[in-house]
Design goal:
The complex is a heterodimer of chains A (about 400) and B (about 375). By secondary structure, chain A is α/β, with parallel strands linked by helices. In chain B, about 20% of the residues lie in helices and about 30% in strands. In chain B, strand 9 (about 165-170) and strand 10 form a beta hairpin. Chain B is globular, with a radius of gyration of 21 Å. The chains are: A alpha/beta (about 400), B alpha/beta (about 375). The interface between A and B is large, with 38 and 39 residues.
Chain lengths: ~400, ~375
């Protein structure tokens, strides 16, 4: 029996993130690099630690190797603890056989024993898809104050974009009267952020009922939450204000990276009271030579820059040779941009080489209307000398290469 | 010899009277910042771990707060082990002069227990005012091949200003034939001088130190090494390439500026032998709209809106719009406010330069702004 934890977190990190294309061919979405030194999962993990939640189960399923390796014993987030800490929870063999996680609710159901071991009053259910800083402790206080069975974090979004989200219709007292999943004509602009706090006793009961229902898709959004709502459990919406982005698509991932270098950035990663922790590489400081011009950019350690970098995010150990130009792009760790190559509006994944004189991506003004988009080069690719990679192309590692 | 049979001992402080001036008034030599994100101790510590050494003792005397804060439990070097790992050895019984850490001899004598309890057969000792990316494996091989009693790493060049510095006449076979000990007055003469790295059997070190202490000796260099030149086979291991011996603010300044040379960086930061340091979880460096940066080393956490040329910026340095920084070294947390101009300046941690200031030193005599001060 472990020491009692008031609230533990379960982080759903098993999704493939298929809309990120080749970026998630070999890694799960939460492991996708972000912001020059982070990975997406650093945000919910750091939020947990900063909120005083020291027991976190990370549910992995799709391509878990890199994610497992990255999380390790949890030391970068101070989650290498005697009591609690971070635990990787992959599907495992049981006496009735082995089952993959069929849905988000089933993933938690299969780990009821893990949660029971800590005997928590409350469980936070988080996902590894979003960039945001949030104090879950405040949300928990709200949950307790409202004496709710389930609290859902909610963000007011632009009406024009509301139809892209799962929406909630909220009464004046904060209780949720209705849910709408991506409606054509939204009646609310209050979107669910995919952050839930449940009273564990209640959730436990509904998970068992949901599992017994053969018609259920075992998903929180589709099955468990409607069931709880339908049964008259108290569901409340916790209003959140601040930066929150879903980075599930190439465009939104690119955009959220660009948000960091915008002069009026809405998210401050440099806040000493709310640090975002990450596993740091061991690299010397970056070197900017006298041939380089670096502006409006975020550059990580170990980079060697001899070329032009503007409005871009460069991860650790990137080399930019003389005459090369990088504009409005994201270059992930260890990639090399050789002499006179031009990279514009692109995402270049890890350890890729853009050879001399190659041209990747294009500016919006150089494209026909409606043709423009972000170009993506996968990891370990070599773009040949003087080769041109067109706008919106997505190039991955050759099979067997 | 195998690396696991070698005990690493790092001397965190300088024993001679001449040190890197104000840099070491608030900290030990081991925790002097270097190269944008490191402390001097990171280099010997990483080199030892890279060579396969599994147990390291750090001898320290005063001002070791910043050192303890930096090395912590030894985690960044994977030295936070149940078996062996890293040990900090502060003075333990200061009531007796011989147990203090004032001299090299007394500090080694005071760790007699630690030496006795360590299972290793050899001791590798290194100072922390020297900088060189050494391959200790190669040093071990040299020691074995020469069948040496003691091997001392030396450099040929102008003697640094340090009292107690050993200078050698070295034969073609690398045997040291003559030792003179500098009083600090020999600075600048062309010679072979000790680089503060020494290898010998543990039993020999214990014996020599005990004998010297029994005879009321005080100088490790004179009474232990020089006195036994004939009795023991003492060999010199020469180093070439990029290295630095910090004996003054000026040499510290030059050692940092030398890192702007790509060849020197290549020698010091070999990806196969990484230099590890304390993790601080800074954000990547941010370059603003008006940033102009050229020939500079920039660490994580810096925010640059102004001009930076030929400089080394440690973590979390802010350079505001209109500020110009040239030929300078700015320690962690330095703040350069708008429209201030710096040339040949070293700022210690968290120094603040308020707007519209103009500070200019000379490369031969850089201005030093002390820790937490405001200009």
């Amino acid at each position: 029996m472990a020491r009692k934890n008031e609230c533990i977190a379960m982080l759903l990190a098993g999704g493939q993130g298929s809309r990120l294309g080749i970026l998630t061919k070999k890694i799960a979405k939460p492991a996708v690099p972000f912001g020059g030194k982070y990975r997406i999962i650093d945000f919910p993990l750091s939020n947990c630690v900063n909120s005083g939640i020291h027991t976190v189960g990370v549910l992995t399923q799709y391509q878990p190797l890199e994610l497992n390796d990255y999380i390790g014993n949890g030391e970068p987030w101070d989650l290498d603890r005697t009591d609690g800490g971070v635990h990787i929870l992959s599907p495992y063999q049981q006496i009735e056989g082995t089952e993959w996680y069929k849905g988000t609710a089933n993933a938690i159901y299969q780990n009821i024993n893990f949660i029971d071991k800590y005997n928590p009053e409350y469980v936070a259910i988080l996902s590894g898809d979003h960039i945001y800083k949030m104090d879950y402790a405040e949300m928990l206080a709200f949950h307790k104050e409202k004496d709710a069975a389930c609290t859902i974090a909610m963000l007011e979004v632009d009406w024009a974009e509301a139809s892209r989200f799962g929406l909630m219709i909220v009464n004046d007292d904060g209780t949720i009267s209705e849910f709408e999943e991506k409606p054509k004509n939204p009646r609310s602009n209050k979107a669910s952020m995919g952050v839930y706090i449940f009273t564990w006793k209640k959730l436990r009961q509904y998970l068992i009922e949901d599992e017994a229902n053969p018609n259920s898709s075992n998903d929180f959004g589709h099955d468990v939450i409607p069931a709880m709502h339908g049964a008259g459990e108290k569901m409340v919406a916790y209003p959140f204000k601040g930066y929150w982005r879903d980075v599930g698509t190439i465009d939104s991932l690119w955009m959220a990276n660009m948000d960091l270098i915008s002069p009026d950035a809405e998210i401050d990663l440099d806040d000493p009271t709310w640090k975002i922790y990450a596993k740091s590489p061991s690299a010397p400081p970056q070197y900017i030579s006298d041939k380089a011009c670096v502006r409006n950019s975020l550059v990580a350690e170990g980079c060697e820059i001899d070329g032009d970098v503007d409005f871009s995010v460069l991860f650790a150990n990137v080399k930019v040779e003389e005459g090369a130009k990088i504009r409005d792009s994201i270059i992930m760790p260890g990639s090399v941009i050789k002499k006179n190559a031009v990279v514009e509006y692109s995402i270049i994944a890890e350890n890729t080489v853009i050879d001399e004189g190659a041209k990747v991506g294009a500016c919006e003004k150089d494209c026909a209307p409606g043709e423009w988009g972000i170009t993506v080069i996968g990891e370990n690719v070599k773009v040949g000398k003087d080769e041109t990679v067109p706008v919106k192309a997505m190039i991955g590692e050759k099979e067997g290469a | 010899m195998r690396a696991k049979d070698v005990l690493g001992i790092i001397h965190a402080q300088n024993y001679d009277s001449l040190t890197a001036g104000e840099l070491t008034t608030v900290r030990t030599a081991a925790s002097v910042p270097y190269g944008g994100r490191y402390r001097m101790i990171d280099f010997p510590l990483s080199d030892m771990v890279n060579a396969g050494i599994t147990q390291v003792g750090i001898i320290t005397d005063t001002n070791y707060q910043s050192l303890v804060d930096h090395v912590g439990s030894g985690r960044p070097w994977d030295l936070d082990r149940k078996r062996e790992g890293m040990f900090i050895l502060p003075p333990c019984n200061t009531s007796s002069a011989i147990m203090s850490h004032n001299t090299r001899l007394s500090s080694i004598y005071s760790i007699s227990d630690f030496l006795r309890k360590s299972r290793q057969d050899y001791v590798l000792m290194t100072d922390t005012n020297v900088l060189y990316n050494i391959d200790y494996q190669d040093l071990f091989k040299f020691h074995d091949e020469k069948n040496a009693d003691i091997t001392i790493v030396y450099k040929h060049g102008k003697a640094p200003a340090a009292s107690g510095l050993m200078m050698f006449a070295v034969g073609d076979d690398k045997r040291i034939n003559e030792i003179s000990v500098s009083s600090g007055m020999d600075a600048g003469i062309e010679t072979n001088f000790s680089f503060g790295i020494m290898l010998m059997r543990k039993s020999l070190l214990e014996y020599l130190v005990r004998a010297a202490v029994a005879h009321n000796a005080t100088s490790f260099e004179r009474d232990v090494i020089q006195a036994n030149l004939q009795a023991l086979k003492i060999y010199g291991y020469p180093i070439t390439g990029f290295s630095a011996y910090m004996d003054s603010v000026k040499s510290f300044y030059k050692a940092n500026m030398d890192l702007l040379n790509p060849e020197n960086r290549r020698l010091l930061f070999d990806p196969a032998k990484p230099v590890d340091t304390k993790i601080c979880d800074n954000v990547p460096a941010m370059y603003g709209l008006d940033a102009v940066v050229s020939n500079s080393l920039i660490a994580d956490g810096c925010v640059i809106e102004g001009t930076v040329e030929n400089s080394v910026l440690f973590r979390d340095v802010k350079v505001e719009k209109g500020a110009v920084v040239r030929n300078s070294i700015l320690f962690q947390g330095t703040m350069i406010s708008s429209n201030s101009t710096l040339n040949a300046v070293i700022t210690d941690k968290n120094a603040v330069i308020t707007p519209n200031k103009n500070l200019s030193g000379d490369e031969s005599y850089p201005i030093f702004i002390s820790k937490n001060s405001t200009v």
